[in-house]
Design goal:
2 strands; about 700 residues; mainly alpha; 2 domains
């Protein structure tokens, strides 16, 4: 397979925006980058190998999946280090088809954005796959799980490796199919099947937006290539793309809303917790729900105001949707009793921060939070899974006092909590601070709506601290309320917790404004992004930190006072009695969004509309089909009768006449020359007589 590099000089985001300078592209060729396509191929290939040979292989397919994701982790880490030290930009592609003037290509993108995702999917995936072996031990569909899990990771890698819209959509759909299989893994319970169907259908509705937006964009540019689209934007060509840019940008964002579970298309994600906990961890950390944010990052220049020609106006919609999501979804976590659903709606809220950052024009800030969030949210989900594994229940009402029995799980969960809340020096502090600082900057530089979203972001920090304090208190403090004797999880499950805890502590140190901004520089290696206007704080906004940090600590304090104080002297029910009139039922019923969809869409579709469609199908469609069938039958019978009675009759009569003539003529041809001469003489006489008469 021949690959070709499409590398050029790559601008540094900061310098390009502020000084118009460029940095060297770094590595654009060599076996390390040219064979990066193996990152995509090996997990996909492993899926099929597990299906075919998994049950007879060592560890029933887990080892094959572990080795495949381990390869991705090692290769992704090598590329990550290489990009950090020298910079890497490489686009390798092969042509697979031509449709009219459009060329369909398949390939691999190796730049700052894709390398970050390779690293996350590989490293987080490796730890989650390791954990899953202990968690799924004894599962009746152990092999099938790891086949689906490998496809899940592989589909995400197809998506992030894509240099074009077609390949991205293929990866997008692979992730969706794999998520359907994994969410419905315990299909014996109909609720799990319903959850899988719900996730699939909601995403299909959103995917329609992505497909239409991609078509509009490709037709306008004449290419499906991301670099071609971004090149048009950077050069400021006022062609077809500028005419339809708003609608293309909006439709693509709708697709991102579905995958990243943004309000009001978030309804599928809490129910998706029906799947095994390792699925939840990988889904929320490095696959699926991060895909929407990744897509916005890949097309980020398209959403900037470049002389008002492209989709800059969509950014106001993006920041509002992200702001509403980060604020409204946080409240839902306060009322959840299922520990996984607490973390699920928490992920939706944190994704709202990332999306809002993109809407504020803060490319680096949004992706930096995606980077740090991957580690501490995977840690929290695996910690929750460790607890569930010990008490055999998802409900926090069956927990309590587990810090005494599960110290490793407890302390790593605390580290994940502090990172999520944004307490210094944990990772979430740095990424969340950069998002809020970027919103503040955008609010003062031509985007007034960002000021309002900044307020929601600060309020969101308080809400995050409150619901995490509640979750920690109800799970680890007080007295144990469940059955049996809880115990610490085995080392195959606790080792990944410690690995993720390390990253939850240190990942934020890669981007400290005014001190060290390695992440910004690593992310800058992509082509082309000159003049994108991405804002980077030159130093910490200490005034903002002085506001946000006390608010977060206040949320932790109130949460502890409501749920953790005197925990040993109270029952779980007594500890969790805090209610706010009116708002509490609203949150418990998820803002009645599900009810609205059922009332406004599902039931009318399944009721009157379905009956109308059924009547139309039976009476009109079937009637037309039956009439056409009856007419065709009658015509066939008529043709058959004509064939048998007329055509065959003519053929038979002709044959009989020919046979009779032949018999007569056969008698005349005796072979005697004298007879032939006599016939000739008579013929001449007859002709002469006729000539005379006539």
């Amino acid at each position: 397979m021949m690959l070709h590099a499409l590398a050029s000089v790559v601008p540094n985001l900061i310098l390009a925006a502020e000084e118009g300078k460029e940095i060297e592209a770094g590595i654009t060729e060599g076996p390390i980058v040219e064979f990066a396509w193996l990152i995509v191929v090996i997990p996909i290939l492993t899926t099929f190998l597990i299906v075919l040979f998994g049950k007879k292989s060592p560890f029933k397919g887990w080892l094959m999946a572990e080795l495949a994701i381990g390869f991705v982790a090692v290769y992704g880490t090598v590329l990550f280090i290489l990009n950090a030290t020298e910079g890497v930009v490489y686009y390798g592609q092969i042509e697979i088809a031509e449709i009219g003037s459009y060329t369909l290509e398949w390939g691999v993108a190796v730049d700052g954005l894709s390398i970050m995702m390779y690293f996350l999917v590989g490293v987080v995936g490796l730890l989650v796959f390791t954990y899953a072996k202990g968690y799924l031990e004894g599962d009746v569909r152990f092999t099938w799980f790891f086949a689906s899990f490998s496809l899940f990771a592989g589909g995400m890698l197809v998506l992030v490796a894509s240099p074009n819209l077609i390949q991205l959509i293929v990866g997008w759909e692979l992730v969706g199919v794999a998520s359907y299989l994994l969410i419905g893994h315990y299909w014996e319970d109909m609720a799990n099947v319903d959850a899988a169907n719900k996730a699939f259908m909601v995403n299909k509705v959103a995917d329609a937006g992505l497909f239409l937006g991609a078509i509009i964009m490709a037709v306008s540019v004449g290419s499906f290539q991301f670099n071609d689209v971004i090149g048009v934007v950077v050069e400021g060509e006022n062609g077809m793309l500028s005419q339809y840019a708003f609608w293309a940008g909006l439709l693509i964002f709708i697709g991102a809303m579905g995958k990243s579970a943004q309000f009001p298309l978030h309804v599928w994600l809490p129910d998706a917790m029906a799947g095994p906990t390792p699925v939840s961890a990988l889904m929320h950390a490095a696959t699926m729900v991060t895909a929407g944010v990744y897509l916005l990052g890949r097309l980020f220049p398209f959403y900037l105001d470049l002389e008002g020609m492209f989709a800059g106006d969509v950014r106001n919609i993006i920041i509002v949707i992200g702001g509403l999501t980060l604020f409204l979804m946080g409240f839902l976590a306060i009322v959840q009793n299922d520990i996984k659903k607490v973390l699920a709606v928490s992920s939706v809220s944190q994704l709202g921060y990332m999306v809002a950052a993109m809407g504020a024009g803060a490319y680096t800030a949004g992706l930096f939070h995606l980077f740090t969030h991957a580690f501490f949210k995977a840690l929290l989900f695996l910690g929750a899974g460790s607890v569930i594994h010990a008490v055999h229940s998802n409900n926090m009402s069956d927990m309590g006092g587990l810090r005494r029995y599960m110290p490793k799980t407890f302390w790593t969960f605390i580290m994940g909590t502090l990172a999520l809340v944004g307490i210094f020096p944990f990772a979430g502090f740095f990424s969340k601070d950069e998002i809020l600082a970027s919103m503040k900057y955008a609010g003062g530089h031509g985007q007034p709506i960002a000021n309002f979203i900044l307020v929601l972001g600060i309020a969101g920090a308080f809400i995050t601290a409150l619901y995490m304090a509640r979750a920690v208190s109800l799970t680890f403090f007080g007295t144990y309320k469940g059955d049996g004797h809880p115990h610490e999880s085995p080392s195959v499950m606790t080792f990944p917790l410690m690995g993720l805890a390390f990253f939850a502590l240190t990942a934020g140190w890669t981007n400290m404004p005014g001190i060290y901004t390695g992440f910004t520089e690593w992310l800058a290696t992509r082509n082309p992004l000159s003049g994108i206007g991405d804002h980077h704080p030159e130093s910490f906004d200490f005034a903002l930190i002085a506001i946000v940090t006390p608010i977060a600590l206040l949320g932790l304090g109130i949460g502890w006072w409501l749920y953790g104080r005197n925990a040993d002297d109270k029952t779980q029910a007594e500890r969790d009695t805090f209610r706010i009139p009116v708002l509490w039922p609203l949150w418990e019923n998820l803002y009645y969004i599900d009810d609205f969809y059922m009332t406004a869409i599902v039931r009318p579709t399944m009721g009157p509309l379905a009956r109308v469609v059924l009547w139309f199908d039976m009476r009109v469609v079937d009637g037309v089909a039956n009439a056409v069938g009856a007419g065709s039958l009658a015509l066939a019978q008529g043709v058959r009768a004509t064939d048998e009675n007329v055509v065959d009759g003519v053929y038979n009569a002709t044959g009989a006449a020919t046979g009779a003539s032949g018999s007569v003529l056969r008698r005349a041809f005796t072979g005697r020359v004298q007879q032939y001469a006599a016939f000739s003489f008579v013929g001449v006489i007859v002709i002469a007589v006729l000539f005379i008469i006539l």
